[in-house]
Specification:
The structure is a single chain. By secondary structure, this protein is of the alpha/beta class. It has a single domain, classed as Rossmann fold (3-Layer(aba) Sandwich), CATH 3.40.50.360. Strand 1, helix 1 and strand 2 form a beta-alpha-beta unit. The chain is globular. The termini are close together. The mean pLDDT is 96. The structure holds flavin mononucleotide.
Amino acid sequence: MPSPRLLALCGSARRDSYNRRALAVAMTGAREAGAELTFIEPREFVMPLYDGDLEASEGLPEAAARLQQLFAEHDGVLVATPEYNGFFTPLLKNTLDWVSRPLPDGSNRPGTIHLRGKAAGLVTASPGALGGIRALQHARLYLANLGLVVVPEQAAVPAADKVLGADGSVADDRTRSMLEGVGSAVCKLATALAKRAD
Ligand SMILES: Cc1cc2nc3c(=O)[nH]c(=O)nc-3n(C[C@H](O)[C@H](O)[C@H](O)COP(=O)(O)O)c2cc1C
């Protein structure tokens, strides 16, 4: 089978995001396991806060339709999200809520059709002591509700401001291996799911 294609989505748009750094390490793990990666730059997919009236009058935002198309072309997704008060971020939720909506012509109904049965993996990073781990259980449930198959492997990086360098460095091998392990697990699951669909 050809290399599985994975999207990499960050729930923080912040330029110096620690989650973006964590995601980059997970992407390396996926690449080394044989996947092709497409990084979604949050600032290139800006969407309004979901509003049913806006959807009824204007349809899907152009960025949401673009992202739906990208999901349709990929076999899975690596997600990094900051923890905000114990939850994953509104940016991640709003983005995927729009992506889950059907097109006005109904051609992709249900709206989650391009997500269902695809592999997903989660990582998080925080300057705090728990590393964002509380956000992951909610994010895992949310991704599963969208029909994604979330690998059991996950990674939370505490003290991320000290552990994850802006140059891509990771201060300890255990953290690197945990983050890369999520990427590798998503690649393997995406491959297995694609074989099953044949
Ligand atoms: C509204 C808000 C709530 C936050 N809540 C938490 C939290 O519950 N746990 C935590 O570890 N950090 C929390 N933080 C701190 C974030 O982990 C920190 O801002 C981090 O840098 C965000 O991720 P990023 O660097 O990828 O943007 C919170 C930050 C904000 C803005």
